[in-house]
């Protein structure tokens, strides 16, 4: 039995419009890819950070990466729950992510915080833009995406205060 047949061989959660299942899965896939890419970019910056605050930024990046990986898992598990098989392979992330890449070089601590803050904000905005359409089809999936936005926007705030900007 293939993974697709296993996922579809049992009772799936009801949706008002079962035809929306693939569309919701596709929306979750886009979010998943961006979260995986954020975690990869965060790790790259973790290895690249230099400057007086590098140690603190280095440790903070580990926390963020762990949070992005946890959120990615929640998103992927929701997709599977709905009968959609998510794709988190490196090839999918490389071609599907809309997160702006980083240059592989040493990066000053304040620049790491600034650049990462911009990327987190962009992902949060894209996920927020999906809330209404996904919620119209499945409130539980909308709740998952609300959780993602909530965490990303909290991270934006924490990154912003590291730059000395007003909360």
From TrEMBL:
Single GO molecular function: oxidoreductase activity, acting on metal ions
Pfam families: Ferritin
Organism of this sequence: Kribbella turkmenica
PANTHER family documented for this protein: DNA PROTECTION DURING STARVATION PROTEIN 1, GENERAL STRESS PROTEIN 20U
SUPFAM superfamilies membership: Ferritin-like
Domain of life: Bacteria
Family membership: Belongs to the Dps family.
InterPro entries referenced in this protein's UniProt entry, alphabetically: DPS_DNA-bd, DPS_DNA-bd_CS, Ferritin-like, Ferritin-like_SF, Ferritin_DPS_dom
Domain Ferritin/DPS: 27-164
Protein name: DNA starvation/stationary phase protection protein
């Amino acid at each position: 039995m293939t993974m697709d047949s296993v996922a579809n061989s049992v009772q799936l959660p009801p949706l008002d419009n079962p035809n929306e299942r693939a569309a919701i899965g596709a929306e979750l896939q886009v979010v998943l890819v961006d979260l995986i890419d954020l975690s990869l970019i965060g790790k790259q910056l973790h290895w690249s950070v230099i400057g007086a605050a590098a140690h603190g930024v280095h440790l903070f990046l580990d926390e963020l990466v762990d949070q992005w990986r946890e959120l990615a898992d929640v998103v992927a598990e929701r997709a599977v729950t709905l009968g959609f098989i998510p794709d988190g392979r490196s090839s999918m992330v490389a071609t599907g992510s809309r997160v702006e890449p980083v240059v592989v070089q040493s990066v000053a601590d304040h620049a790491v915080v600034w650049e990462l803050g911009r990327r987190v904000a962009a992902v949060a905005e894209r996920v927020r833009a999906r809330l209404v359409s996904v919620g119209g089809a499945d409130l539980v999936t909308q709740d998952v995406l609300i959780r993602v936005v909530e965490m990303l926007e909290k991270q934006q705030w924490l990154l912003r205060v590291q730059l000395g900007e007003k909360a």
